[in-house]
Specification:
One of its GO terms (cellular component) is proton-transporting ATP synthase complex. It is found in: Cell inner membrane; Cell membrane. Component of the F(0) channel, it forms part of the peripheral stalk, linking F(1) to F(0). The b'-subunit is a diverged and duplicated form of b found in plants and photosynthetic bacteria. The structure is a single chain. By secondary structure, the protein is mostly helical.
Length: 160
């Protein structure tokens, strides 16, 4: 080795000695320890945050399932109410149709009875007039007229 190399080597040893004497390796180790501690703390915090996030996720998933089941229950109740309302409406319609039919039948029966009564009344009046004319032709005189009036009154009272 040459003298320059020897001096460079000696300078290097002195430099390393000064650095060791000043405690640079301790400071480097301390800085690395601090940095490792900081990284470890950050990892712990990240783990805690991850656990909290997983807990929140599980809670939200549970709430979502509860909301979904509640929504299904609401839909089921709404369907039941709609079916009940449909049945009630159907019953009301059936009842309404039955009442209207009964009312129409009653009106028809009343109209028939009225028509029959009018026809009977008209037939009675015609029969009375015809009988009156026939009897008037056959019976002449006061006795015939009296008998005719009595008969007409009797027929009229029995037919009406």
């Amino acid at each position: 080795m040459g003298t320059n190399t020897l001096w460079a080597f000696i300078g290097l040893l002195i430099f390393v000695g000064i650095i060791i004497k000043m405690g640079v390796p301790g400071m480097i180790a301390s800085a690395l320890d601090k940095r490792a501690k900081l990284i470890e703390d950050e990892l712990d915090q990240a783990r805690r945050l991850r656990e909290e996030a997983q807990g929140l996720l599980a809670e939200y998933q549970r709430k979502a399932r509860e909301a979904e089941s509640e929504a299904e229950e609401i839909v089921m109740l709404a369907k039941r109410e709609a079916e009940a309302m449909e049945k009630e409406a159907q019953a009301k319609i059936t009842d309404f149709v039955a009442r209207r039919t009964k009312l129409a039948e009653d009106k028809i029966a009343q109209a028939e009875a009225s028509a029959i009564s009018e026809v009977k009344g008209a037939a009675t009046d015609l029969a009375v007039k015809a009988a009156e004319q026939i009897l008037a032709k056959k019976m002449e005189g006061k006795a015939g007229k009296d008998l005719l009036k009595a008969s007409i009154a009797e027929v009229g009272s029995k037919l009406h």
